[in-house]
Amino acid sequence: MTHRFLAVPILTAAMLPAPPGALDALQTSAVSAQGPATTFKAGVEVVTVTAGVRDRKGRVVRDLQRADFEVVDSGIRRDIRDFYAGEAPVSVAFLLDISGSMAVGGNIERARHAIAVATGMLRNEDEAALFTFDASLQEVVGFTRDLDRVRRVSLEGKPWGMTSLYDAVAAAARAVASRSNRHRALLVITDGVDTGSRLTAPEVSGIASSIDVPVYLLAVVSPLDHPGGELSVLAADDVATSTATLADLARWTGGDMRVASQPAHAVAATRDLFEELRYQYLITFDPDPRPGWHPLEVRTRNKSLTVHARGGYISGPAQSEHH
Predict the structure, then answer these.
(1) Which of 307, 298, 308 is nearest to 73 (CA)?
(2) Among 14, 36, 93, 170, which residue has the fewest nearby CB atoms (within 10 Å)?
(3) How crowded is residue 284: how many other Cβ atoms within 10 Å of its Cβ?
(4) Residue 246 clears pLDDT 80, i.e. is over it
(5) Which domains are assigned to the chain?
(6) pTM value?
(7) Are strands 80-87 and 90-97 parallel, antiparallel or unpaired?
């Protein structure tokens, strides 16, 4: 007998051009997505972007000022209107893959461990939510500051069903975007095999980036499948093609992608996520008035630094007001 999971309370990349085939879907989906992708001040549409910055050694950079940043919108440099830098509580949604493919090679055990590690890094002032997905998205625990509710959830059971990875990411990203915290993210834990989504990776990454929610992907794999790992039977280049769409999704949103085949990998990945997420730079600027998708690059004048920020935004007439 097949059992579902019991949902009972007890990861800057180079900026990528917008995929031509995805523009219509991006515009349609982004218009209906909730969240402060854009804010409206006195009738003027203002784009808000959050960014994390690291140096060559991967350390979070905390001492930058407005003058240190450049915003390039569709190839044109924009003036920065507002600027904020600092540490703050975070809003994090954990999205766990419980589809049938996760039963292979012990990946579900690696995923459960990663969830336990990530929830253990939350602070009392943070808020979190837990979602699972197979063929559809399930909200197990909605956003709460009672973090023990998330930590006590039993995730025992046998993985089951198809994977609708990109659909689930798009829906969960909207839930994160509705939170008022400036520092927020979606952490997806999956084996990376998508068999049931209706949306493509470029479409979902465009939706998530349009609402300014960084998506961090932790791909759990066996040591034999870990690219470049000690026990891997594949070289890093051999795996690059199959994981490229997931990595691109993370980059589009200003997030990152990591691969974990050992407990230490999950610890390092989640530690890096929270370190970057807690200290953010917030930048606003006046957008290109032309409607549609606009590729965006946020960079620093110091070329040795790496900026994680979303890769574009949707511009259009102001129809509502978001705060």
Answers:
(1) 298
(2) 14
(3) 19
(4) no
(5) 1-313 (3.40.50.410)
(6) 0.75
(7) unpaired
